[in-house]
Amino acid sequence: MAALDKEMAEERAEALQMELVQEAAEMAALDKEMAEERAEALQMELEQCRDKLEEATLDLQLMRAEMEAGGNIQHPYAVGEGATGYEMRALQQQNVRLRETLVRLRDLSAHDKHAMQKMHKDLEQYKSEIAELSRTKEKLSARVEELEAQVADLREQVDAALGAEEMVEQLAEKKMALEDQVEQLKQDVSELEALQEVHEQLVESNRELEMDLREELEMAHAATREAVREREAAMETIMDRDATIVKFRELVHKMTEQYNDSENVCDHDAILLILLLQRLNTKADIILGQIREKFPAVNVWDREVITKTHTAVQYSFRCQLEYQLHMIQCLVSMWSGALETCSPEVLLRAAGALPDAAAQERALDALTSLLRTNELDENCALDGVERCWSYLAAMWSGLGMGSSAAREPVLRVCSALDSLARALHADASALSHVLQATDKQHELGQLHELIQNSSSALQQQLKSVRRRLPPGARLDNVPLDLQLVERLRSDCATTLWRCSRAVALAARAAAACAATAGDRGEGAPLTAHALSAVWAAATDKMYQQPTPPVVLRAQLVKKQLEETKTLTIKLENKEADIKELKKALKAKQEELSEMQIRRELGERKLSAAASAAELRAEQLQRKLDDAHNQLKRKEKEFEETMDHLQQDIESLESERGALRDKLKLYAKRGGAHHAAVSPPASLREFAQETPVKVAPGYAADEVNEALQRQIKVLNWTIERERAARLAACKRAERSTVRALRPLYNPDSAAAVARRQAVHNLERRLQQLQSEWTLSIARSGLIKLPEKMVDYPKVVQQHKERQREIRRQLEERLASLQLEARNLLLLYRPWRCVEADFAEFPTTELAAAMNPKTVDVGTLKFPASDDFKADTVYVTPTQLAELRELVTELQSEDVKVELDLKLEGCAA
User: Fold this and answer.
1) What is the tens place of the pLDDT at every residue in 310-327?
2) pLDDT band at 604 (very low <50, low <70, confident <90, very high)
3) CA triplet 705, 708, 710: central angle to 5 degrees?
4) Which residues contact 349 (CB under 8 A, 6 or more apart)?
5) Rg from Cα positions in the chain
6) Which of 53, 320, 373, 794 has the most CB atoms within 10 Å of its CB?
7) Residue 896's beta-bridge partner residues?
8) Per-residue pLDDT tens over the stretch 664-692
9) 792, HSE (Cβ side, Cα atoms, 13 Å)
10) 621-650 confidence digits (pLDDT tens)
11) Are 288 and 322 in contact (CB under 8 A)?
12) How far apart are CA 487 and CA 494, in angstroms?
């Protein structure tokens, strides 16, 4: 059929080519007729020119005869008997004009003769072209006759092919019948495999149980490994701790030896220590100046300033920070004065503490960075600054430096105490404003007033001390106790610092409580009872007793012992679980071996299916390669056709250019001819006086129009031929592309969706088949009633239930068939025939969807009298299993009578 279609396509192409050749022949005939008409027109023009020449010659002879007669003949235009002088002069002038006219006529005749020669040449060229076109026409006519003979042969072949097609249709019908039988046999196989699938489902359930047990076993193993890992980690931790202790002891011993054997610190460290003290003093001055600008003093004290703003808290924080910085400056001034007057040995011993002293500078660097980034506020901790001056004080006491008699430390200590007094006064003022006015006469109000008075008195005393100190660097001549600075910066400053910290904590907490103490979350003063609770919490936080380290170690050891007992119990439980899991593992070994055998069988089936898939993939690859080769061949043919068409177009373009040149030449000739035959002004004047008439020739417009019409016809022919060839190529390529099968891409989304839909449909069909088989198998199972009187009713109900089940299964089967048909029409559109109002499946698809059943045999078994015969659809595999069951029963009541062989049966 494909070869026949190909031959018919070739016949259609040849017929189209014949039509094109006939059109070309017609165009050539039209060109010949136009050339003949042009030749006739030129011939007529030549004859007219000859007539004009004869008339001019005759007039010339007449004039010569009259001139030869002289005076014997009177001029026809003379008036009277004798000619006057005026008439003679007129006659002479007329003769002159006649002579000029004769000269012009001679020139015109020579020009016309030359034009006639050119026309004769063009006529001969046209005759040669006409002869060549006639020969081409004869060749094309012969080609047409050959093609007609080929068409007749092809028609005979088509008739023969139609007969072969009928025979092929008959064979196709037989083939479809055989395919129907094969499909029926496949359906029988699938139905008989339903029970096998039930068995496989049971096997799968066992496999799932095995997988669950394996997962539980793995989880138990993982738990065991985790417990072992935790125990090993605990042991490693203990070993690491012991090793760390040993290493630490060795390091301490080594460092002790190095310290004992080391030399005295060098002088460079002493210089660095002096520079460090200067840097500490300078940085403290810078920070003091910055915080005084950042946190200004509170000018007006009221409850809104305390509860709604942070000005009071920030001022208290500033005073506390000033205290810390003044203490650093005090100790730095003490160290600077001592290092200036001490012995070299003391200087070197002090320089030995340079690394630790340099580390204390980081606290001031941290404050500087916070000031630079504008992040310093009342929430920042002051522990680092306190550790800085505490380390300097401890180093002063450790080296036994004694007392200082300098003026600078006294001023710095007084400034530090003044800062604490200002902090106490500010916090006490805040607490007094937070307290209710009615409670100010109680103990708390009196306490706040006492703190304010004491802090104010302390500030006045400190101012008087700073004012009464004499100028000068040292105070040796002043009757002051040398231990005054030590007492002020140790006992007095520490006590006042703790008191100020407690008051600051109480003030901050009270301000926070007063900000939300109102009925609607607004600010309100606190009662004496609430403020007493705040005071108690602040004093407990500052003055609470520290826990002894022995108690802390005892609590830690007790906690470790409890954790060890817990881990021991967990390990025992894990070991018991491991023993139980081992017992379960031994019990599952046999089942695992059986599952292993079944897995091997499944792997064999999978390998067979994989080999079949590979074979099919190879076949598809070969088909794809053939399609690629065919496509390349078609592309090559298309390129050759396009090259041929391009050559034809170029030749036609060259012919068109030649015709344009000819048109220009004819236009030039026509213009010259028109100029030659048009009489000049003098000739027109002479024509008025003499009866000589000169007729003009053909105009050049007629020649131009004829040539333009010919050129238009040629252009139209070229364009039509080009469009016809392009359309033919397009139709051929389009038919070739449409004849190709669509490419299959297994990784595309459409292919994946199609496979999922088909897989879902197969699964539903298998489920329906299993339910159908089980319903048939259970159709004879009737639950006997307790009373035999109800037996007919139970049987009737059972039959109705079976009919309902069968009806539901048939409806599901019809719906699945409809879904399968829709999928087939969607992904295999060539399987359907489109009509005006619906789509119908092809003959092959209809035969596959509505297979014919074949009666294989009869199954006989004992039943009740009212039991009716029923049809059971089986596959060859199911039929073989049924025969084996009947053979195993060895009963005369149950028989299977087969009318056909097992190999040829169908459902």
Assistant:
1) 788 888 888 988 988 988
2) confident
3) 110
4) 265, 399
5) 65
6) 320
7) 859
8) 776 666 544 444 334 333 333 333 333 33
9) 3
10) 888 788 778 778 877 887 787 777 777 777
11) yes
12) 10
- Nearest-angstrom CA–CA distance, 492 and 498: 10
What gap in Å lies between CA 71 and CA 85, rounded to an integer? 13
288's tokens: 């003091």
**How far, in Å, CA of 832 to CA of 825, rounded?**
6
Query: What's the one-letter identity of residue 256?
Result: T
Closest C-alpha among 93, 49, 56 to residue 75: 93
Q: How far is CA 139 from CA 29, 145, 429, in A?
A: 14, 10, 131
CB neighbourhood size of 293 (10 A): 7
CA distance 575 to 210: 23
Q: CA-CA distance, 11 to 801, in Å (whole number)?
A: 67
Distance from the Cα of residue 277 to its chain's centroid: 64
**Which tens digits make up the pLDDT trace of 32-74?**
888 888 888 888 888 888 887 887 777 677 767 766 765 444 4
Residue 403: pLDDT band (50, 70, 90) is: low
What was the pLDDT predicted at 441?
A: 72
**Alpha carbons 56 and 104: distance in angstroms, whole number:** 11
Can you tell me the distance from the alpha carbon of 418 to that of 462, in angstroms, rounded to the nearest whole number? 7
Q: Tell me what pLDDT residue 522 has.
A: 62
CB within 8 A of 830, min separation 6: which ones? 842
Q: Which residues contact 783 (CB under 8 A, 6 or more apart)?
A: 794
Task: Tell the residue number behind the tokens 């094109």, with chain if given.
Answer: 20
Count Cα neighbours of 260 within 13 Å in the Cβ-side half-sphere. 5
Contacting residues for 677 by C-beta, under 8 A, at least 6 apart: 108, 112, 694, 696, 697
What is the pLDDT confidence band of residue 892, given thresholds at 50, 70 and 90? low
Distance CA 79, CA 77 (A): 7
Q: How far apart are CA 380 and CA 322, in angstroms?
A: 14
Distance, C-alpha 457 to centroid of its chain = 79
Dihedral of alpha carbons 268, 273, 278, 282, sign = positive
List Cα–Cα distances, 756 to 431, 752, 759, in angstroms. Answer: 79, 6, 5
| Token reading at 281 | 């003093």
**Residue 747: pLDDT over 50:** yes
Q: Cα dihedral angle (339, 341, 346, 352), rounded to 10 degrees?
A: 10
Dihedrals phi, psi of 633, to nearest 5 degrees: -65, -40
Amino acid letter, residue 879: L
10 Å CB burial of residue 329 (0-12, 13-18, 19+) is buried
What per-residue confidence (pLDDT) applies to 699?
A: 44
Q: State what percent of residues in the chain have pLDDT above 70.
A: 78
